[in-house]
Amino acid sequence: MRERWPAEGPRWDAEIIATAAALSFNDLATTGKLHPLTRTALDRMWTVQQKDGGWNWLKCDWPPMESDDHYGVTLAAIAVGVAPEHYAETPAAQQGLAGIRRYLQDNPPPTLHHQAMLLWASSYLPDVQTDKEKAATVSQLLSLQKPDGGWGLATLGNWQRGDKSPQDTETSDGYGTGFVLFVLRRSGMSPSEKPLQRGVQWLKTHQRESGRWFTRSLNQDSMHYITHAGTAMAVMALSACEDSKTATP
């Protein structure tokens, strides 16, 4: 970013949002201060925001992250919400957030996964979901917990696999379990509540020798990239559930 963006520019609009989000989380977890590069990335998001309040996101048929524009909007909202030093209150952010709210009002989340992304975003920006919507999302997520205590990513949407084979909706996985646990903690659920304790137990007993938590690709079985994100979500969930207070990231 420091060298390539000034010389060549970002490769995609999605790169700007993803970079801004990663840097915002890093700043919060380390110095608690907004680094100049983080501010640059956040401010640059608004320069490519479209008139409808969204962005031209990557749509490569790799759900849940690269299959629709809605994901990019919620990730941008989270990036702004988590940014330290009240970045969300700056004039640029306020104008951009108005666009985000307009997009979300006009474009309901297409899947439960994206409803959960909104629930996560609402922990920083409370008005992106109503109290009724928040409660409904929590209820739907809890209803999908499996007998073994985990969750399966494929149950959070209606995505089609590239080879047209059926999704595996029976098996718990790292992303589904980690993501749902983390979002439920962000919603205010206590780690002492039984569904969260059962989810934590699933994570603690399903880490592989490699250190990862496996998640099957929703697209094709030759490339399970979602396992990387699933492993990150599992770590975030475990960290959040070890804290007696609501998770801070």
Number of strands: 0
CATH classification, class level of the largest domain: Mainly Alpha
The fraction of residues assigned to DSSP E strands is under 5%
Structural class: mainly alpha
Q: Name the helicity range.
A: 40-55%
What profile does the largest beta sheet have? none
The CATH architecture designation of the largest domain is: Alpha/alpha barrel
Count of individual domains: 2
Element string (H = helix, E = strand):
HHHHHHHHHH
Large-scale geometry: globular
End-to-end C-alpha gap: 23 Å
C-alpha Rg, in Å? 18 Å
Mean pLDDT: 96
Low-confidence stretches: none
DSSP helical segment count? 10
Which topology of the largest domain does CATH recognise? Glycosyltransferase
Descriptive key words:
249 residues, mainly alpha, Glycosyltransferase, 10 helices, globular
Helix-strand layout with pairing:
Elements: H1 4-8, H2 13-29, H3 36-47, H4 69-82, H5 91-106, H6 112-122, H7 131-143, H8 174-186, H9 194-205, H10 226-242
Characterization of the model:
There is one protein chain. With 249 residues, this protein is mostly helical. The protein folds into two domains: 107 residues, no CATH class; 139 residues, Glycosyltransferase (Alpha/alpha barrel), CATH 1.50.10. Helices cover 52% and strands 0% of the residues. It contains ten helices and no strands. It is globular, with a radius of gyration of 18 Å.
Please summarize what this structure is.
This protein is mainly alpha-helical and 249 residues long.
